[in-house]
Write a structure and sequence with these properties.
Helix content: 25-40%
Number of domains: 1
Number of helices: 6
Radius of gyration: 16 Å
Largest sheet: 9 strands, mixed
Number of strands: 9
Amino acid sequence: MNVFRLNLAKKNQILGNIFKDLLLPKCIVVETNASAGKEIIFPIIEAVPDGGFEVAEPESAMPEPIKTLVRSLEADQWTEDQKQVLPDGIRDNYMPYYAIELLPEKISIQNAFLSIVACMFFYYDGFSLNHEHFLGVGVKRKPFSEKWLTDLKYKPVSSGVYRSESSINTVIQYIVIDELPCTSWNAPFKVFASDQDERKSAENILKEQGVELRL
């Protein structure tokens, strides 16, 4: 499947299905819910202390086409097995909740911030979340301009992962797909990379793990 030319809603749908197919063999259940009449998915992953996993659903449909929610309950870290299928920025930065959004390439950093915050507030209401345990993750192929990153105090903490030193912006990190290392655990994002060879390599990695790109 040539995902490069798909619209954003379909890309997010594919991303959700990738996570679903990857995480199920790791004893993580992922629920993908589609809003009526729209190509919208938001997988919800819920881990419990005994090693089992459950699925929770938001109280209402997501109003806009984005959103993948990774939800881990009553745990203090990812297992080594889970890290093998969790991309950089998530696998190395444990939080109980992640709201993940594939962003339009031409979006401004201000609008990206507002979009992710809107997603997070939706889940605050649906799950009565504590914002201190919630991280928004905006994902793009290309980075924002150096000026905007500097103004908002975002710096790379590893290749392709940007976090802010500003207390206001620490609730959101950005992942730049084209800067991520070509590792097996980054394949869910790398299938959306600018470079055709990287996309193909990521797709092959997923196929080896039994994951096909699908809507």
